[in-house]
Amino acid sequence: MNLIDRRPQMAPGIARSDAEAVNDKDTRELYQKREPIYPKLVKGPFRRFKWIFMALALGLYYVLPFVRWDRGPNAPDQAVLVDFANARFYFFFIEIWPQEVYYITGLLILAALLLFLATALFGRVWCGYACPQTVWTDLFIAVERFFEGDRNKRMKLDKAPRSFDKARKKISKHAVWLVIAAATGGAWILYFYDAFDLVENFLTGEAALTSYVFFVLLTFTTYTLAGTMREQVCTYMCPWPRIQAAMTDREALNVAYRVDRGEPRGAHKAGDSWEGRGDCIDCKACVAACPMGIDIRNGPQLECIGCALCIDACNDIMDKVGRPRGLIAYETDDNIDRRLKGETPRYRFIRVRTLYYGITALIVAGIMLAGLLNRTELELNADRDRNPNYVMLSDGSVRNGYTVKVLNKAGTERDFVLSVEGNPAFDVRVLGEETGETLTVDADETRDFRVFLTLPPGAIDSASEPVTFVVEDPASGERAETQTVFQAGGR
Amino acid sequence: MAETDKKDIDAHTGVETTGHEWDGIKELNNPLPRWWLWVFYASIVWSVIYMIFMPAIPALPGMQGYTPGLRDHTERENVHNALADLQTAREPQFERLQQAAAEGGIEAIEADPELLRFALAAGDSAFGDNCATCHGEGGQGAIGYPNLNDDIWLWGGTFDEIRHTLEVGIRSDHPEARYSQMPAYGADGLLERQEINAVADHVMTLAGLIEPTEAGETTGAEIYEFQCAACHGVDATGDRMVGAPNLVDNYWLYGSEREQIVNSIWRGPFGVMPNWGERLNDPTITALAAYVYLLGGGEPDEFAEAALLDRDPGGEAGQ
């Protein structure tokens, strides 16, 4: 990351406006009490986009558990479901068993790579628009604004002495926050049980204790993280601001103050000339709008989440004073320097870094897709008895016992044929099954079979010989096999 | 307060000291965090409430009992109730097992996958609790304690025979216990040591463990005919009526080394198995019998045997 200090010298004789960058690293002290931030409402394309994105994200979060997906009669019909009781994860057409958790790992790796790519291209777009902390904080600030008014009114209210009106506003705000927090925690648990059943059971007090525990837990965390902690989560708790610097470079777009255009800044009266000065009139609209309590004009900083609200705020001012928009804009560090040097800016989206992230993401996605497409619906495991290791029979034959697990991941009951490859003299006996008959496994179930292999004394060649169990579904031709050994003792 | 005057403030940290001093080292008085203190006080209050409601204080020395508390709580009773609940919950399954065993024997249990799973699970847990001590965790046996996995049965290996053995035991106190006794030929002075060595030779020859010896083929064979053949049979294949082991198979309950065989003849083994009918309920014994039978060595009933032989010669278990 570019660490060149581009902080401008303050133009002399300019009176500071009320907006302070209270969360600025240079001014905040290590042990000081949190300075409240009162972000001012802005209007503009970025603000509009954030409202739309918030509606979509929250809508998805609340609606998704109720979306149905038909998987046949033997499986739940909830599109997205983490079914702990039956150890299954359902995601639309994907069904994952516990031993296939690497699909989830793959998904997380893919998500991380896409995050790297997005960061290398457009800076902290995840933090600014999509992170749940941002979305819920934004929503909580909107609620606060609804009850207490915009920035100045909120500041005044907090300074005002106790009164009925103040209490009414504060209590209403916290009540609505709690309702939203409860709805957040409430929706979270819907992903772990059938949503419709759970809503009913939850309200009648019949849901599992874990549901209530997680409901309370997530209500509490939502309320505190989005309501009272806000920017502190991003500044102190979240590791991503520390990591993301490694993903960006001088050619990554970032929310930036264009020093080349803005400086020297200073107050400007209508009609005054713009010659010999920068476009920044030091109105601090960007500082007032910032939910993180920083001054974007101080250059790139860890606290900035790239929410772009300062762009809207500044554009509004530029329109009013009749200067071109984009004094604060998505801009690269490189271009700012180029302009300062009088060179033309350039934008390169295809760079070694973006290529690297993009290709890696494509490879991971390809592996994941191939894995999912080739996912078998039949698996086989064989555990040989260890105690006793082998059984010597009266006529000198040797018998081994195996627990053979057949995993039928299909949505229908299936009949399988079990066969054994290895020594041709093996006598195969399946407990509870007639010899030569098919083994029936219910839909989406694992079934254990006790299998005994016996070798007559003349056929035993060595103390241990390989055995391969094979199951085949004659209907579809799908087969699975597993290797183990047959122990015949020390001879 | 008079104490105020004596307040000793540490110069470096500005923190008050406790006033204790050891060789010039003073302890700073950093008070406990408030929340910690409150939790501490709350714990004290809670302990008093606990003592009122729950069993807490043991009686004075020399006296019995304890303060029972207002809630009348006993963990012993909770365990008792939990076990009773478990029993009730399993009742229907055990009833089905009993019924299936009574009507169709082991075949009926094997034919029903759900019942089979239940019988194996119930049998496994009962085996671990009661039988594994002697027969081993997997029923693999030990010297003097039969291996239950193989097809060798001293007293019969059908489901009903195993069940009966479990119920009445072997050489137990039960009046119908399976009973027999091999004489202690050496200990009771019935045979000389040379004679015992000779008969051991003979038996080991019969089993194919050693080449024939002169003593074995003369003295040994003669003694075997008069002393052993009555129970173990002229062909030495044993007799289940009296629990006499087959001496020509591959299995030696008391070991196949020469000194082990000599020792068996010398002292006359007297293996005892308790009569479990006295300690375990009927359904548990049924589950245990099914479990042991299904370890792999169970013998089909004669009735089912013909059918099985017809179908699967490989399953011709233990004759």
From TrEMBL, chain A:
Gene Ontology molecular function: 4 iron, 4 sulfur cluster binding; metal ion binding
InterPro entries: 4Fe4S_Fe-S-bd, 4Fe4S_Fe_S_CS, Cyt_c_oxidase_cbb3_FixG, Electron_Trans/Redox, FixG_C, Ig-like_fold
Keywords per UniProt: 4Fe-4S, Electron transport, Iron, Iron-sulfur, Membrane, Metal-binding, Transmembrane, Transmembrane helix, Transport
Domain 4Fe-4S ferredoxin-type: 271-299
One of the record's GO cellular component terms: plasma membrane
UniProt KW Heme keyword: no
Transmembrane feature ranges: 49-67, 101-122, 175-193, 205-226, 355-373
Pfam families documented for this protein: Fer4_18, Fer4_5, FixG_C
Taxonomic superkingdom: Bacteria
Name of the protein this chain belongs to: Cytochrome c oxidase accessory protein CcoG
Source species of the chain: Marinicauda pacifica
Organism placement in taxonomy: Bacteria, Pseudomonadati, Pseudomonadota, Alphaproteobacteria, Maricaulales
UniProt gene name: ccoG
TrEMBL record, chain B:
Keywords recorded for this protein, A-Z: Cell inner membrane, Cell membrane, Electron transport, Heme, Hydrogen ion transport, Ion transport, Iron, Membrane, Metal-binding, Oxidoreductase, Repeat, Respiratory chain, Transmembrane, Transmembrane helix, Transport
Cofactor: how bound: Binds 2 heme C groups per subunit.
Transmembrane segments: 35-53
Cellular component GO terms held in the UniProt record: plasma membrane
Molecular function GO labels: electron transfer activity; heme binding; iron ion binding; oxidoreductase activity
Cofactor(s) required for function per UniProt: heme c
Official protein name in the record: Cbb3-type cytochrome c oxidase subunit
Source organism of the structure: Marinicauda pacifica
Source lineage: Bacteria, Pseudomonadati, Pseudomonadota, Alphaproteobacteria, Maricaulales
Gene encoding the protein: ccoP
